[in-house]
Specification:
This protein is of the alpha/beta class and 155 residues long. The chain contains four helices and seven strands. It is globular, with a radius of gyration of 20 Å.
């Protein structure tokens, strides 16, 4: 009787374990790369991983939290791209390098991340798909890298 009871308790406990996250989203790498190539101001990486970036001073002015005047002409197409491709998870590296020091750079990167997240949220983008990584770095850039756990669809 004890073995049956222990088995039932074990069965109940294992059924309570939550799933290990959402299943990977399938995407067409070629189609996604073509969409990225059409985004204004974006540099698409030729590397194996799917990555795109906004190089130094193309979106934010040197040492500034706010985007450059006309920054919405870059941010609106980015938001539209993210909305057209739901379920894809991106790591967003917000990197800052100024002459004001590491503490200033880290704070500036965090503020830029907050501003970007707020703007994308207002546009309807699911922030759960974006993992922001603000950091003082050796370069001043905004880099999006596709989560490699996702699966590509072969054409």
């Amino acid at each position: 009787m004890k073995k049956i009871f222990a088995g039932l308790v074990l069965l109940l406990l294992t059924s309570c374990v939550p799933p290990s996250g959402p299943p990977p989203v399938k995407f067409d790498r070629v189609a996604l790369s073509a969409q990225l190539a059409e985004l204004p101001g974006v540099r698409v990486s030729p590397d194996a991983e799917l990555q795109f970036s906004y190089p130094a001073q193309s979106l934010f002015g040197f040492g500034a939290v706010l985007p450059l005047p006309g920054g919405t002409r870059l941010l609106d197409p980015l938001a539209a791209f993210l909305l057209r491709n739901p379920g894809l998870r991106w790591q967003v590296d917000v990197q800052v390098k100024t002459e004001y020091g590491t503490d200033y750079d880290q704070t500036l990167a965090e503020k830029r991340s907050e501003l970007l997240a707020t703007y994308l949220l207002i546009k309807g983008v699911d922030l759960g798909e974006l993992q922001f990584q603000p950091a003082a770095a050796t370069a001043d850039a905004l880099v999006f890298t596709l989560d490699q756990a996702q699966k590509t669809v072969k054409q």
